[in-house]
Amino acid sequence: MSEEADTPERGERIAKWLARAGVASRRDAEALIAEGQVTLNGKVVETPATFVNDGDAVVVRGQRVGGAEPTRLFRYHKPDGLVTTHKDPQGRPTVFQKLPEGLPRLVSIGRLDLTSEGLLLLTNDGALARRLELPSNGWLRRYRVRVHGRVNEGGLAWLARGITVDGVKYGPIQAGLDSRQGTNAWLTVSLEEGKNREIRRVMQHLGLHVTRLIRVAYGPFQLGTLPSGAVEEVNARTMREQLGIRSAAPRIQRGVERTPLPPETAPPRARPPRARRAGDPHRTPWGAKPRTE
User: Fold this and answer.
1) Which residues form the RNA-binding S4 domain (predicted)?
2) Model-level pTM greater than 0.85?
């Protein structure tokens, strides 16, 4: 049974169904099943390969679970000082504690470390999160990186061949110098894999200390002018065109205005500003002041 795929006739695997219902991530849902905390139509579920169909009664820890939600995706501008986890053993503030109220249970697509900023994609669909994290998708993660030290442009170009640092092999990295003032410089860095603290470790290997790291793009999704701390739902058209997902969920735009990106970190506008209207993906998120145009 575990090798059989989800089909309309068979239904959906229960761990995936629970993840889309917002109960837990798929991995945590599998743990709940292993603990005997999940029942289907009154019987304890013994394997994550169990299938759920419309009308089935799923109960987790004694509470009935509603139907799985449509897949939804959000852009979030992560500020410095938050960890990308639901719970932190050290008690540090987390991304999910700081999200505006009224959002479904979300998981992150990839991570940004404590002192990194910028675009973090969030979804209510654990399966989608894993799919978008895979390097095999070929999606570039693009960053603006401020470094302290003497930049050797030849060394940056060499990163395109890949590099091994302290026994860890990193894939090709595209890095270029954008501006320099004294011993400080801004770089644009693009990579596909994104291992833990990859940019910081590679730059340190080149004798550079990263003083600020901002992710400005993840595949086709851009940070743009989304204010720090704000979250905006990706519209249905983009979900369909970029991910092949049809979703009837309403868009949500929420957030608070905090310190904006410095001018040199914001990507150039592709065209002059235009009037905002209902459904415009560039309209001002809730809680942010509209720009004067």
Assistant:
1) 12-71
2) no
